[in-house]
Here is the input.
Amino acid sequence: MKNEYKGTLKSIPGMRAILYLIRKEFLQIFRDKFIGKAIFAVPLVQMLILVPAVTFEIKNINLCIIDRDMSSESAKLISQLEGSGFFKIQHYAFSEEEANNLLHRNKCDMVLQIRSGFGKEIVTDNRSRILASINAINASSAQLSWAYFNGVIRDYNMSIVAERPDRIALSAMPRINITNRYWYNEMLNYKYYMLPGILAILVTAIGFLLAGLNLVREKENGTIEQINVTPIMKYQFITAKMIPFLIIGLVDLSLGLILGKILFDIPFRGSIGLLFLCSSVFLVAVLGLALFISTFSSTQQQYMFVAFFFMIIFILMSGIFTPLESMPQWAQKFDIVNPMAYLIRIYRMIMLKGSGFHDIGKDLLALVIIALAFTLLAVRKYRKTA
Amino acid sequence: MHIFRDYRTLAILFGLPVAEILIFGFVISMDIKDAGIAFLDLSKDDVTMKISEKICSSGFFKKAGDLQSYDDIDRIMKAGNARAVIVYGENFGRDLLSRRQASMSIITDASEPNTATLITNYASAIVTDFNMGSGGTDPAGTLLVRPEVRMFYNPGLRSHFMFVPGVITFILILICALMTSIAITREKEFGTMEVLLVSPLKPAQIILGKVMPYFILSFVNVIFILLLSRLAFNLPVRGSLALLLAESMLYIFMSLSLGILISTVSKTMQQAIFISLVGLLLPTILLSGFIFPLENMPEVYDIVASFLPPRYFITIIKNIMIKGTGFASVWKETLVLILMTLVFIGLSVKKFKIRLQ
Here is the structure.
């Protein structure tokens, strides 16, 4: 791309210097073979390792059952639980102690107690109770397991009503039939949810870590002095620092998208052009921030930690794992300046829902403002005398 | 001295655990709150109004709008304004009164699958509740099987139990392995290592001198995190504190030897950073069951994770802190950590000698 436009761009004053600087950056980046390789290895590793790893779909909840009833009703309940696809019956215990011991040793996630007389109570009284004990150290999986469990019990209740309409008082009661529909992701595939988020992390990591480290390294090695004594302008220097990493970031994004398509058959419903446009704006924002921070840091180690700190906070607050509305007010306010929150939302909307320009316009505008602000800060803060 | 000169890094080393603990404690939550919900009411009668009102006043949902047609559903979901749309069939109220049954559907935006599952469950529960309340019959008589639940170890369903051990593990490997490896590689890169090597100090003494400050720093950090979680979330250590600290020391020792090993194999700081980041931090966050439960991952990851130290340490802390079990339940994990430490030290001593020649 660089060479194609060289002829025309050269005529613009100041552009030539930028082009030479960009060439210098590329040479410098790829001279370190390790970093050159890492740039392409990182998306591969992220896609191959991260995506399958971050499943929060609870599929095999290991169940231990204490069936004190052994009736046909309890057998039916157990088979419905097993048939739901969420539960795997690992053990049958005979005492609560035995079951709790299994829970303690992580041999099962949930213990279901069916008391004796369960079947009889259903037939005669139309009602009964069961007790589930869930290992809740991981609160969110416990919550989800409990939601799945309730769903199965609801179905079970329905099936009893359907089987014996005569015996049950329920038939006299008005009934609301609820049907569920899951749009954009009928199979509730968790990978579809996480992959756009991981792509966003990938783009951020490349921009944030590499660009900043690069500048600090020049400072540490003293090569920045050599540039400072040349008549290059501040904005030229910053632009030249940004463009190579912008290109690398976009290349890595395409690599990630291609891998996502091949490996996980991720749907892509929206416009690719729009996705790249948003990513470019986002990259300018993080690169600006990276260069800004790097002007404060004197060693790579120091930059590393500051950048890491920001990245962790950006990622955790971005709503990558949990819905944004569930966050407290102050956290939602913080996300106004968090570029990752916008990017992850935009990626998910474009890729999974096929949202168009008018749907994400507001988010994109916010990103543009953030990008401008960070870049201006970086240009202002970068002193040639440093 | 090197460390304290760099006060910013020091601030971050303590700031990071604080920020993480606060974010995980107060921000990351799976609870449904104020989720946007829109209604496509084809019936527009008293009953549907009452149901919609009940849903919106539950605190879980916030009304995002009334829709006119099926096309609107796609529009509002694509714009990201609603997470769910409730559709009432025509003549909903009349059907419910005359034919004793009516249908509605809950359409959720499943681009966030877990949220969609929870929303569907909450909304169904509210509707069922409404139905019970208005049915006139004794609600208890209509419930067939009523499930009851007991949440073990964590009755309040707080997420602190998951992330405090995770944050400790993460911070320790960050300080020990990452910082040590960078610090040593830095001396190598600038040639100051040579200066130290020609001094009458023995290599072992040099290395020990390098890692000792990090050891103390990490240990202070562990105590700091424990105090913080005690103060902010009232999270007690159920088991023996002494055992927990001893295990932490072992883990710190292991991470330090890992950091030394990394520094002996990498030539520049950037390399050391990359190896530590990709090889250590990422797997620590992901595979140690820190955020995502390991049980749900494909089998391969389980096998990979069993080669990584954080996984054992997390098991140890969880057992001691949350379940309150003693040494008997963690001796196996402890043994694995000790073995790993010995292997790392052995390897780096071997590498170090080769480099000196």
